[in-house]
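Batch manifest, entry 17 of 40.
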Amino acid sequence: MTLNALHAFDIDNASVTLWCFKKNQKPGENPKLKGTWVDTSDELCSVLKSVVNTAREAIKETLPYSLLAQNNESSALSITTLETHGGLVVEQATDEIAEKKVGSVKDINNTEFYSIKLVHNGVALHAIRKTDDSWKTKKTKWSIPVVYSPTQELDIDDTVGFTISRSVDFFILGDSILVSNKLRFESLLNYKEAHRDDFRLLNQEPEFSRVFADMAPLIAYVGDNKIQLRRASAIKMKGHYKNPGFMANLQAHHANLGLNIKFDTNAKIIPCAETCRDIFQALLDHRLDSRLSNQLYDVENATDVKG
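Output type: structure tokens
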């Protein structure tokens, strides 16, 4: 999706439908989504359009999505539905048929995320947001909802309420996705599970394991930490550990680059709790030696500018 396409979408004249999604996933399988749609008042439809428009207007530029890329409040990360499970959302919310209409509050309770679906001239724009605790029955079971009444006193509120956020986590338009909140996007589309699989496969690669004298400290360092799992996936994708020249340069220059890495007599890396961070930084090739300032820097992402 180009930013122009998003900004060209006619929100004011689009129809609005709120779709609620629940997710189920078994280990080793792709997530399964169940989408249901619910009627909304004209007033709420107007507010939903305003929410989407405000979120859209905040995006001034786009950046390519990558495992370690980060956007700011005025940018979004761009990726296609083919690279994610985003197509499942579009597939579930294709038509507002009777079989998928919300029939009771039970159909809405425990919704994991919702989509503000806008349609104009046959083109659908999905503005997606992860739900908060107001949608979860286990969070409301032990609380008593109250309301400040016209008689200037607190009274019990027997109505069932849900909170709609004024922000959007990501947009889907056609086969493209623009991500405003990377953390929630990855959570909804199961990127952490994919990162776990990547790390498991990485550990099984002979080309990776033979680089180390002992894998146990490295595995303990990563654990189930989403940041380290993401970094491990990036290491697997870059594959510098497969390059003998890269690894020889690392052994020769790690001290000059200020990297706390130890090698044994067989040129294998000896990981420990104190060195794992620098090992990851090295295998990501994220230690920058600036020729301009003669300073060493750690960078979050690296783009090859030689073209």
